[in-house]
Amino acid sequence: MGVIKPVAAETALIEALDDATGWLAQLREATRMQGLPTRRNEMWKWSDLRRAAAGISTAGSMTVTGATGEVLEPADGETVELGVSASAGASAAAQGLVVKSGRSVTLVERYGGEAGSLGNFHLDIKIEEGARLERVCIHDETETGVLVASADIDLAAHAHLTQIALAFGGKLVRNETHVGHAGEHSEAHLHGVYLLDEGRHFDYTSSVHHTGPGGITRQLVKGAVAAHARGVFQGKFKVDRAAQLTDAKMTHRALMLDDRAEIDAKPELEIYADNVQCAHGNAIGTLDETALFYMRQRGIPLARARALLIESYLAEPLDFVSDEGMRDDLRARLQQRLRAIS
Amino acid sequence: MLKINDLHCKVEAQDGAEKFILNGISLEVPAGEVHAIMGPNGSGKSTLSYAVTGRDGYEITEGGIEFNGEEIGEMAPEERAARGLYLSFQYPVEIPGVPTMIFLKEALNAQRAARGEAEISAPEFMKLAREKAKQLSISMDMLKRPVNVGFSGGEKKRLEILQALILEPKFLILDETDSGLDIDALKVVASGVNALRSPERGMLVITHYQRLLDYIKPDVVHILAAGRIVKSGGPELAHELEAEGYDKYIGEAA
Predict the structure, then answer these.
(1) Mutate which of B49, B98, B172 to test chain A, going by most A C-beta atoms within 10 A?
(2) What is the pLDDT of residue A260?
(3) Cys-Cys link to A203, which of A47, A226, B119, B162 (CB 3.0-4.6 A)?
(4) Which residues of A51-171 form beta strands (DSSP E)?
């Protein structure tokens, strides 16, 4: 396979990763060989990264607060906060995290990107046997930046993962999660909420690969998309022959707030075991006009009625956040964004 | 108080086709009076209630609606609500995720804000809601649940009347308030409505059957057929209809 002729953003990213090692070196070489993914790549068909990165021609920098440069091994009960922000230009950073056996850890990631940024933050996470991780990803400050938050998560037996993403999108923002699921009483919960104002793009992509028997996976992703904005959901459950008695359910539901909104969804099940319970559901709808009229008839102005209805539609995945303060904070961010867009 | 002048209304159906449903209704309900609108299915009863309260898709093509001397036919539903128009829905709408108390407080404060009045405080509102809920045997637990979600038919209709007791509108339109109610629930709802009767308030009671009018006594009864009022009279007209049916009016209108 020949090396592609790189576009400016690709050259800039390769330059930014000049002396990188590990995952970042792989990213550099993949970019050198194949370029940034485009819509011709099945996994990126609705989120053309090369196109979104057009106009970016310099290397930038990615600042990650809370990272030490070493693999993080948080103590039991600890909350790790990572603040990821990409400056204008192309940049990437990676971080490892291990939840040691039997520990329970919370990880909060806050993402931001300047205008003209192309950033990729990658997490490599191992959740050891009997350990628990609750992961909250907040994408509320990427504005017109382009950002990919990718994570590879290895879930051991009797381990527990809950992930909740709240996203307001950007020029293109993608939250991409790949879970290796050992089964054996381990559970993965991958939830998310996205609310996209005009011109925003958000992509929730995840895959869960069940390799051992008796694993549980739950997914609930809900979105609302305004005119000229685009929401993308790609969810995949792969169940190996060895992963008998897997119990996995995937649900994506989204609201078109305008005829000119776009929502693309690809729920996928790939099942090789014969004794499993796997289901997926996907529904795209619009705001209930009758409910809107009912609320307005009671005196609630149109914009407020819309905001209340959208909030009630979107809020459910946030209920999976176990910490009440964090849950209230996410709900408040959602309400604030709703006030701004409606 | 409410004056409907030669009102023509068309409705856009789902397939984009237009249908004229009101073909020149004129009606005046003075403050303090209760008027009943009776008519067969498809005569335009619900359309009239939606046209008066401003539902999208119900376009007034001729005539107008005056409320307290002000033309309201072009106003948004929330503007009409703030001026004191209230519609009790035939099918109250379920709003998952919005607790009833929060919904009611939002509605009351939105109306107050639109009228330039101060917001009601949370404790004041609680007190008001508790007092009014008691009148209708509605538990505070029910008010913590999302609006109408999982409510029985009777509970939904009681909640419609509770909202009216809290919002204190100047004018009520009751659309088939008796549908889906057993006799006990009907009595509770009717006593709630009667508690709202006052010399300053008007009401339009839309019903298919005479039964409701035994409990909410109208001053005037109008018969609606094919989008027009074909006859008006006193309360005895309702009994006459009950005995004779709508057949002769359907013939007259066509």
Answers:
(1) B98
(2) 97
(3) A47
(4) 62-65, 79-86, 89-99, 104-113, 117-127, 132-141, 146-155, 160-167
